[in-house]
Amino acid sequence: MLNPQVTASAAFRRRPDASLLTGDPLALLAFIRQAMEDANEDETGPALPVPVVVEVDAGGVPCRLYATRTDAPLFVYLHGGGWCYGSIETVDRFCRRVADRSGCAVLSVDYRLAPEHPFPAALLDVDTVLAYARGAGASLGVDPSRLAIGGDSAGGHLAAVACRRQRDAGTPLDFQVLIYPVIDPLLASESYAELGSYGLDRESMKLAWETFIPSAADRMTPDAAPLAASLEGLPPALIQTAEYDVLRDEGADYADALLAAGVPAVHTRYMGVNHGFARKIGTIDDARVAADQVAASLRAALTF
Tell me: the pLDDT tens digits for 82-141? Predict the structure, then answer.
């Protein structure tokens, strides 16, 4: 059964009218971006005080650092939004809670968005931020030798790909957190057929993929399709999925593939909630539970 808090939370978001849905795609995208920002305060609630909240220029990529102490492990976080919308602000409350509960510093990344900056711009921004963290992390008061990455939805996709890229570069990460990650550019999982009326559907995901990576051939490369590469040697993972989410099955399948490749992985399915629930700290109880699970997993993985 769908949690009534999901329905209540959805009421805060403005929806496009028919003229926008059938009109200029860029106008529709601008509307969606603004509607998400406008609803953010109501969806995510008041800001939890964190001792350090500072804007950071990470090698030219805007970021925001949250920290509760010095010399803390670092968790690099990538927001969701179909690679086309979302921002540091839309995951601010989530990042604050994770920093507060985990003892890790959180570096939230304002990577470039499509269609203005299509693939591989966002991936290159993530590479830049990770290199910056390793080189300048000590000057930020964090311990870059203990480094994890994570993200939700499209951000989870970028995090999964970054883990493989970092492994191949000889600079492996210590842990990954993937919250309802986008994994399959073919949109082939059964949950697409079963679901689709709970805020995310096949057509919107197809459009997101095509906007982010216009070339169909590029969508099948390892930098776009995480399952197109070997998964051996990737960092241990926490994967969270949602019962009423078309991405549910591909997240579960990725957890299974990691385990089959010998990668320690924990998969938790949150029941009664839909795609996007985890950032809605102020309106959905399970969002706070999910953030606390992320924090506990980071604490266990990085505070060695």
Answer: 999 999 999 999 999 999 999 999 999 999 999 999 999 999 999 999 999 999 988 999
Task: For each of the domains in the chain, give its residue range(s) and CATH number, in order of start.
Answer: 45-302 (3.40.50.1820)
Q: Which of 102, 108, 153, 297 is catalytic?
A: 153
Exposed/middle/buried for residue 179 (C-beta within 10 Å: 0-12, 13-18, 19+): buried
Residue 275 is a catalytic residue: yes
- Among candidate residues 9, 157, 275, 286, the one labeled active-site is 275
What pTM value is reported for the model?
A: 0.97
Alpha-carbon dihedral 43, 46, 51, 54, rounded to 10 degrees: 50
CB of 113 within 8 A of CB of 84? yes
For 187, residues 6+ apart whose C-beta sits below 8 A from its C-beta are 202, 205, 206, 209
Instruction: For residue 256, give the nearest of 165, 185, 189, 301 by alpha carbon.
Output: 189
The catalytic position among 100, 125, 184, 245 is 245
Residues 6+ apart with CB under 8 A from 34: none
